[in-house]
């Protein structure tokens, strides 16, 4: 048995490499400026390709937003989006009539299933100071039998997400935030949507974020499932050691999943990592933009269905809704009372 935990290392580009059952992972870290009182940047947008601005000019992008940064109404079919907002606030609206403003550690889990249209906008609420935003968006595939499941929207509020805090003899702290998957020592995991691959027996899906203080160590436990694959994204900090291997720089590290490995922060600043793991679905993947199916014929059908039905239509007066000027967090579920949380 090899004592080398790292099977491969890949660089972190605009889109991070993923392993089945994951399809996509993006890290948005935008140093947005002050707002102009109408949720848009207070600075000129000259030099940006408005409607498709991924430039990171001045440390931020407008993405597909034309006035407010973000992603106006767009469709999905055949997979799930899991959005972890680490700082700042995001506004969600969708074709089910669901809406939310969330952030500061909150997670939105959206099963597109047979089809949904949603928008993800980043309103700049603060006109007196900067509006930094940091989030991960992860796409988790659905197995063929669930690709046409009913769409499902849910929120995991940051205060309720399980966390494990480990302190060594010197008080150096490692914190693991458990969005999905079981972790010994943490509270029971929150339940993923019912048709998710993360809800299937033996799928062994985990989505964790890790924070290691300088000098801190923590033992990453072996995956629970046979055949599980595991990717550790080292994206912040100066030095990380995995087992006996020192990592030379930031990257996506595929790890041997069936063994415990000690993680150690060998630098002078905090280390941050994202972990994605799961047993592969092992089915063909055919993708066309926002649609992910198993065959080209199913992609063609998705395009036809969207042109014909708009996946239920868009109930909002504009394609890029913003949910007011108050920084309150909330979720309005279809057919349910609005859930309000502290700002």
Automatic annotation (TrEMBL):
Signal peptide (from-to): none
Keyword DNA damage: no
Region annotated Disordered, chain positions: 313-343
A Pfam family that the UniProt record links to this protein: Pirin_C
InterPro entries tied to this protein: Pirin (IPR012093), Pirin_C_dom (IPR008778), Pirin_N_dom (IPR003829), RmlC-like_jellyroll (IPR014710), RmlC_Cupin_sf (IPR011051)
Cofactor: Fe cation
GO MF, one example: metal ion binding
Domain Pirin C-terminal: 208-312
Residue ranges of every copy of the Pirin N-terminal domain listed in the record: 63-140
Cofactor: binding comment: Binds 1 Fe cation per subunit.
Record keywords: Iron, Metal-binding
Residues annotated to bind Fe cation: 74, 76, 118, 120
Similarity-based family: Belongs to the pirin family.
Protein name: Pirin family protein
Organism: Paenacidovorax monticola
Upper taxonomic lineage: Bacteria, Pseudomonadati, Pseudomonadota, Betaproteobacteria, Burkholderiales
